[in-house]
Amino acid sequence: MRNIKPYYQEVLQQLMVMNLPYVFMTGKDTLSGKNMEEIKKVLLLVLCYGVQYKGKRSVTHNQENMFNLQWLEVPDVALEELEALSRNMVFQLRRLIDERNEHMELIMDLTQ
After folding, report:
1. Beta-carbon-side half-sphere exposure of residue 109 (alpha carbons within 13 Å)
2. Is the pTM of this model over 0.85?
């Protein structure tokens, strides 16, 4: 978190006047009102960066980063396209499961 203010100032040319979120709180009491305010700050910073990021098109159009749900609304999807979408979905699920397991291991290590 300590690199966020310099990044906003040097790269985005914006002076951050809000207090940085206290991220250590977010892992303790996840449902408290104060914790939710800190999570909102983190999301605000990420979203503000995402809107201004010059390479956002390459991020949002990369199938490894995003999963397009528009195909659910199309009644007649070609079999080849359905297979490609299914492979992408499996890739995304594997990645999410790996991330979940990695974070669970970290949580277990931190709580011992």
Report:
1. 6
2. no
